[in-house]
Amino acid sequence: xxxxxxxxxxxxxxxxxxxxxxxxxxxxxxxxxxxxxxxxxxxxxxxxxxxxxxxxxxxxxxxxxxxxxxxxxxxxxxxxxxxxxxxxxxxxxxxxxxxxxxxxxxxxxxxxxxxxxxxxxxxxxxxxxxxxxxxxxxxxxxxxxxxxxxxxxxxxxxxxxxxxxxxxxxxxxxxxxxxxxxxxxxxxxxxxxxxxxxxxxxxxxxxxxxxxxxxxxxxxxxxxxxxxxxxxxxxxxxxxxxxxxxxxxxxxxxxx
Length: 256
What we know:
Elements: E1 4-7, H1 20-31, E2 40-44, H2 45-51, E3 55-57, H3 65-74, H4 78-86, E4 88-95, E5 98-103, E6 108-110, E7 130-132, H5 138-153, E8 158-167, E9 170-181, E10 187-188, E11 204-205, H6 207-219, E12 228-232
Parallel strand pairs: 2-8
Antiparallel strand pairs: 1-12, 2-12, 3-7, 4-5, 5-6, 8-9, 10-11
């Protein structure tokens, strides 16, 4: 079966407390999609974060001395830097405009994944001072949504939550997984033969990240308004998994 990626239409701007499962089911109906066993819904983290109320206004943030020091080095608002520190385990690199951290969720990213593009808050407050944090636990968010959708449609599916990350060795951002439920993060091909019968020794495929990157092409990165993609034909068997299997152990990380 070919892999098909279909953007879901008619999804409104998400507000805290919105019924995401109901919104997605309605969008699939408008798009002409009936959920089937083995389907996967790929969701931009932003709609998860918004539905979970992960907004912070910078006026509510008091920067620490460490945040003030890093802000001077990186030419950033000390209040934003304070949020980055609160969302991180460790600061790894800094340069003007960027702070590279190990996020509390375990992955390495810029500015702890905090964003203010396509984010607005209450009227009368500066829009550019509203920040959106990543979901507190994307795996739990994905599992909760998966359960609601499976109960409603009586099928077995996967849910993948993605974000856009840069890479240490290449320019440009790509879609990557940050939370998942019901689908593998890694596919272990070690021991399988290649075309010439050679047994693979080290090949593990980041299949969740591959799907995230493909879906990100459909979603876009600016004003497309397409935060959800339906995937059918994923070429790996669905299984129970967690995002943690994608995290490279520190002792194997050659860039730290």
